[in-house]
Design a protein that fits this description.
It contains 17 helices and 24 strands. By secondary structure, the chain is an alpha+beta fold. A six-stranded mixed sheet has the order 11-12-13-2-14-21. Strands 16-20-15-19-17-18 form a six-stranded mixed sheet. A five-stranded antiparallel sheet has the order 1-7-8-10-9.
Amino acid sequence: MNTRTPRRLAVVGVALSALVLAGCSSAASSEESSAFVIVTAAQPPSFSYETSATGYEAGEFWANTGATLIRNPYVEGEGDLSASQDLFGFEPLLAESYEVSEDRLTYTFHLDPDATSVAGNTITADDVLFSIKRKFETPTSVVPFVSAPALTDPDAQVTVIDESTVSITISDPGYGFTLLSMLANQPYNIYDSTVLLEHATDDDPYAVEWSETNASYGFGAYELTDYTPGEQMVYTANPGYVLGEPEITTIVQRVVPDAGQRANLVRSGDAQIATQLRPADQADLAEGGAAQIFTVPTNAYVYIPLLTTAEPFDDPEVRRAFSMAIPYDDIIDDVYRGRLDPVDSILSEDAPGYDGEGLAAPEHDPAGAQEILEAAGYTEPVEFTLTVNSAVPDLEETAVLIQSAAADAGFDVTVDSVNSAVFQEGLAAKTFQASMGRDYAIVQSPPYVLALFYTPGSPLNWPNYETPEFSAALAEGNAVGDPLTPEAGAWWNEAQRILQTDLPTIYVGYVQPLNAFANDVGGYVFRTDNVIDYSQLTRETE
């Protein structure tokens, strides 16, 4: 039996078009003058996970307005980091407790009667079933692709036992760790079905269209109570949040497009947190003691998905040559000021059973890149467009370095900088020859991480990559049972070797969080979704 730890976690340390929100005033509340201010580069493209699952701003919205049945516990961090997650343990959240059957095939969750949505409704088993069915039955949802093989058919696997009890069954006990890891993270936020059903239609039975522009249907720590497109979002604490009302009751998230201005707002005390900064701005803030900059056990990487089904990257030799054209050391030193590390594995080396044999980070070798292109018959520079998100300044700087260095390796690169909404749309449509982003696997179960961006047909398969050998390695690893054993680890290693040979994606480096916290702010928790948990923030007062 798994039961909840104390309700209020003590954190140690230093710290689209115009959308309309029903019930939200257009004017800022009188409390805003003393509110906690966060400055960011953009806003979520919508408020529906099933139609807009990616992007930093969207992730931070769902992390703070939503909640899951269970979560990875927060544990005290090292150094100046307040806390981080225990990725291999789980504790109840919206569930008061849960238990696992003797055959390890059935997981039964007993819901907390004190868990209340922002609309004031107590969580029920019907909410859980409705939420999971919505995730699977919305055509644009990524959840079916990222959930297989652990969860594939909610009608058969999710059972409402009574109003406050629900069970989930799996076909193989080896899927248990991945199931729990998924249930503990954003893809499995539970929704208030009472609210959503009020806005459902015959054509939209899960109110997905309504929720794209209306945000008040979650069980999270905060409700979005005011929204001005392109300008700001106001979050108000949910008094019915299952872990108790957060200490910071009002958070104003303001859009400030210029990264340097965001940094200066923290420096001046006009903002408590700035996100999506340039590493140079972080370094200046840290050196002057003007803000806190954290170093964490990051799982976020800068990466370049290459469209493998269209020229020029349908040729694996071109992909291989381009990986050698990238000036990794210059990017680490000049753009990231040392806050970027080479990627030799996309899996956590701390995971039990990890096998890193034969894996290596890519290296800069322009002469070698030219030799590969010449041997493959390319007599003229290989032309392509590298698309980047203008809301992420470090990526624009990195793209310029790559453009220059790649010219010496036989490539003619055009850099196209687009806004966040256009970038996310292009990724989903798979229209970019190459794109550069910062991303991560929220769920850290090895088979989930490996399949996340490479499941055939998935909208998250940015490179449109598919090969039987990679799929077979994943299947063999899943067949082992426990994904955290050395036997399974050998198959995860085989899958990574295939990726490093085929290069559908070039992993430039692991990147530290590009945010800054005012010196009087505490409670920063590093999470695998790389966003800030507002419910844990504290602020020193005189």
